User: What shape does this take?
Amino acid sequence: MQESSSSSAAASGIATKKQADLQAQYNSYKSTLQQLAQKIGELESEGDEHKLVLETLQPLPGSRKCFRMIGGVLVERTVAEVIPALETNAKGVESVLQQLVKEYKKTEEDMKKWQTKNKVQVVQGP
Assistant: This one.
């Protein structure tokens, strides 16, 4: 009789460990998705700023003086010097943003496959 109670206790311990491992993996996926979403939001905002500045500078004469923040230092430039740099930066931000969106979608898909494979169901608390 002792043997059956110890085997059920061992089985319970294995189930608890598996549940803890699944919870840790789920939390890892959620954390990764949250970080990616936050970075995507930051880059979208930065892209919008670049677009707004470009729209503001486009109609101005190229010889007009303007100021640009580079590495925390405000430098004086002309509109003609700043526009190409802004366009390059805006394209770079857009490229990184697209990569992050792809990564987010892939991670989300991986998480769904993992949930299906491990029969994980999310239970929302009250």
